[in-house]
Design a protein that fits this description.
16 helices, 4-stranded antiparallel sheet, homodimer, Rossmann fold, alpha/beta
């Protein structure tokens, strides 16, 4: 059973009785993204520190009572309870005393999006739907395809033309019906919307479906629990359509309402320089404007964010900030994270780190503040980008002399740089 | 502290007092691969079912008392405690009543090899070494690079010329010194051996280093524990140099000695048709002969297995069997596993499934026997192979009419097949 109480429209702030069928605000239409509110007083009876201590389900479903679901799926993929690593070396390198890294690439389809897709599939099952559809630049798609395949649901996935091949391979291996749309993310989103309406499929589009934030927010629950509810001063995350940062806020907000944490961390939203509508809006104190989608961080290349209110609110409410990083800075962050911590993130996955490094340089974040960095997806998703960040290794003849020569030459070159 | 007692040479069967420095048999030389024996009677006092029940370390290090290590690393990557999924749909499709799938692609560098590398690094730290080296077709390398980076150790990695780009991207992102050897795996192995001797680096080559089997065997411990110590009749795993199947056997053997399980599962070793020296030796009752390395399953393309005795012994001791699968069968298995269970395996990762399907068809394994299938690595490691198994998705114009036309045409084509 769920403690969900009401829907509240993020635009007109009208509230509606909670019902599993409502998707967007009846008054504002499609732009009226709904937020789900909970009966925290009632929830307090169930969700306590001792509830967590005795819970042996080390997956996102350990947080079921904090979510808008009627039950949990039977034998799903293991989503969530990804590691929160204390930084061993990166912190000192970038000038932080206390840094934790949440590796969301360790989810079953290797990104944070598994949390949203897992909830979407549970909601589809609750709605007796057997087909789910979404548009996605890649990770939402592969997570939907994988998690749905495991539970026997059919998927239609609308991808933009530029989706990296590695991600397509994963989606197609999961047996999804992939619809490659001749256009950008916007075109894929539009066509998915039309087709979903036409066929009556269950809608996993993150901006429309209010339950997805409720799935993604489990990442904040885990961060808090893994820190023994002593959360860091800041949480840093990359931002595309805004759903993830909105979810991170919602998770900490829930815990704060339940008196499980004593503060909500400040949120740093990091966008790619080539696609930064949130940053632009925040800097210029103006409404969100459509942006180009020009970045290697394809998972956050969203020119028209569909969930602007929740995301802007997340940063404002926490006295957080927005920042951008260039593609070059993103590639450098990828190499630094890999080298110092053994974590391989995709471009969008390490964009948070690129932004964190800039925030430290500019004094926006101080070295004595504690930080949690969310790495949203694994680097194997997009190895072409990773290869851009590296030099091709030297081909060495298979004898010691050639090897030593190659090594010495290389080291001399390194020294000369 | 460790319960390790003695080294026993797999060739001459002489035993030697356990010491952390011995690598191979002093009598037989490099081919005298050592096996580590334990004081099971002493171990029984510590390693009990209640030990596991109260242990909250959900990583491979929960099995530290069963391993040949003096301590455990501080703040390592989270290796192990990967999910063991009960099959939801694959079992019925291939004609099995009871099937479990161990997804080793959920390790931090996305393969089972993380278990071996994690132990190698611990042993290097115990030996006060700061450089570790290995030769590898990819997964041993990326796991060594990632796990070592996290703990601040330097790595040299010798890869054959044909290592897939995705794997190289991962290794290089971890900041490893990659030595691309102009030749095959054999050439890379030879050069690594020479360089390791020359520079006195710590040796992570699986066939030489007796501790690596002790790390990999934790996969068997987990399977047993996740099955509440009621192990399946069979365990199926793909085989390259033989270390993994030897490790699976060792793990079950340990548990059997400790009376924690009542039988050791029969092991099915699956090799790629284009590189099947173990299968050939077993079929012809003759010694292992060098084989070509002609298969897409690059992680198990090992023409000269360096650990033949332990691997052959594993299958013989359990009354198991060997089988091969063609590249086409491997690609089919990849698609079937993805579609039915939402698990994306690399070619070598799903070779076990390809072999299992053939074993069921031929009656080698019966539908009423229970089976655990180990998927050894994630499909994102080698998306080029995955793309070979699929048709390119149709490019659709972004309107409903075009979409429906494309869909209908596709469905008609499907029906005509």
């Amino acid at each position: 059973m769920s403690f969900a109480k009401e829907f509240e429209c993020t635009l007109c702030h009208k509230t509606f009785e909670y019902s599993k069928d409502l998707m967007t605000c009846p008054h504002c239409g499609e732009k009226g993204i709904l937020d789900i509110t909970y009966d925290y007083e009632l929830m307090k009876g169930t969700v306590t520190r001792s509830y967590f201590k005795s819970n042996k389900d080390y997956s996102m479903w350990r947080y079921a009572p904090l979510m808008s679901i009627e039950g949990i799926p039977k034998n799903p993929l293991k989503v969530g309870w990804t590691p929160l690593y204390p930084s061993n070396r990166l912190n000192r390198l970038i000038g932080l005393q206390k840094l934790f890294i949440k590796d969301e690439g360790m989810n079953p389809t290797q990104s944070l999006k598994d949390r949203a897709s897992a909830v979407a599939i549970q909601k589809a099952i609750e709605a007796n739907a057997s087909v789910i559809a979404c548009s996605s630049t890649g990770n939402a798609a592969s997570s939907l395809a994988g998690n749905a395949a495991r539970l026997g649901l059919k998927t239609y996935i609308f991808v933009p033309k530029r989706a990296p091949k590695g991600k397509l391979a994963q989606i197609m291996t999961f047996g999804s019906n992939v619809v490659k749309v001749d256009g950008d993310y916007k075109a894929a989103f539009q066509l998915s919307k039309i087709a979903i309406n036409h066929f009556g499929w269950y809608n996993r589009n993150a901006a429309i479906n209010p339950h997805l934030v409720e799935g993604k927010k489990t990442v904040a629950f885990e961060i808090a629990e893994q820190l023994n509810f002593e959360v860091t001063d800041w949480v840093v995350v990359s931002v595309g359509d805004g759903c993830t940062i909105a979810s991170v806020y919602k998770g900490f907000y829930d815990l704060f309402q339940l008196n499980l944490i004593t503060k909500i961390p400040k949120l740093l939203g990091v966008q790619a320089e080539g696609c930064a509508p949130f940053y632009q809006a925040w800097m210029t104190h103006s409404p969100i404007k459509e942006s180009e989608e020009s970045t290697i961080a394809d998972s956050i290349a969203v020119g028209i964010p569909r969930n602007p209110v929740k995301a802007l609110n997340a940063v404002n409410q926490t006295n957080g900030a927005w920042i951008t990083a260039s593609d070059q800075e993103i590639l450098e962050a990828m190499a630094i994270l890999g080298k110092t911590e053994g974590i391989f993130g995709e471009p969008a996955g390490v964009t948070g780190l690129a932004g964190l490094m800039k925030a430290l340089e500019s004094g926006l974040i101080h070295g004595d503040e504690s930080v949690t960095l969310i790495v949203t997806g694994n680097g194997l998703k997009d190895t072409d980008s990773a290869l851009k960040a590296m030099n091709e290794p030297i081909l060495v003849k298979p004898d010691l002399k050639s090897f030593i020569e190659a090594m010495f030459n290389k080291e001399e070159e390194d020294n000369n740089e």
